[in-house]
Write a sequence for this structure.
């Protein structure tokens, strides 16, 4: 696995800002970790979003929102 | 690569650890802590041999990064028995011959413990569905389902 930096997201906006600058979100990791081990995915920066208060996904008109 | 300091509560014991963030929970258990009861089968989340309980929920330890679980409680096969007294599901696996080679057994038992605590044991079909993440290439499924059904009945 290629080395990476892992950070815990402190806020939703912080996590989005990190993703905009190239970080990958990690939650369960069941796909991402597997692909990182095979070096298919090679993120340099992971942002752990487990602690964020995002608990459900709902359909809102034409969009899906996580809240 | 920067190491991370984390604490895991493994089978009730607090274990301070210095880990590489690339280490899976499985590799920390087996290689750092020498808890080799948890097996590495496919190392890709397909076989279930590495199943452990993480804060009471079953997970594939091969697919989760240990660094993400600072402070978590982990229960492995080594944590089930009470001294020399086997957990009821361990005893039931022996009674019902729920294994042949034994490689998948730790994962089957950990998954079975959770299957029972989740209440997914109302029928053999339900047990089979909720144990479908744990593969047994010897084909001891009949005994595995019997053992879980039996331990679930005893627990009631």
């Amino acid at each position: 696995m290629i080395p990476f930096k892992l950070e815990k997201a402190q806020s939703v906006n912080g996590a989005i800002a990190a993703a905009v600058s190239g970080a990958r979100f990690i939650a369960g990791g069941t796909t991402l970790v597997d692909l990182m081990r095979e070096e298919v995915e090679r993120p340099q920066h992971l942002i752990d979003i487990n602690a964020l208060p995002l608990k459900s996904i709902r359909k809102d008109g034409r969009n899906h929102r996580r809240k | 690569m920067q190491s991370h300091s984390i604490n895991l509560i493994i089978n009730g014991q607090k274990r301070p650890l210095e880990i590489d963030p690339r280490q899976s929970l499985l590799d920390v258990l087996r290689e750092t802590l020498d808890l080799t009861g948890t097996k590495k089968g496919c190392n890709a989340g397909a076989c279930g041999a590495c199943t452990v309980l993480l804060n009471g929920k079953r997970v594939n330890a091969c697919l989760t990064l240990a660094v993400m679980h600072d402070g978590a409680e982990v229960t492995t096969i080594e944590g089930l028995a009470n001294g020399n007294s086997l957990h009821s599901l361990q005893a039931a696996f022996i009674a019902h011959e729920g294994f042949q080679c034994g490689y998948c057994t730790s994962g089957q038992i950990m998954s079975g413990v959770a299957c029972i605590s989740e209440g997914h044991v109302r029928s053999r079909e339900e047990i089979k569905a909720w144990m479908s993440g744990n593969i047994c290439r010897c084909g001891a499924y009949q005994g595995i389902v019997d053992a879980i059904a039996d331990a679930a009945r005893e627990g009631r």
Remarks:
- Chain A has one domain: 5-52.
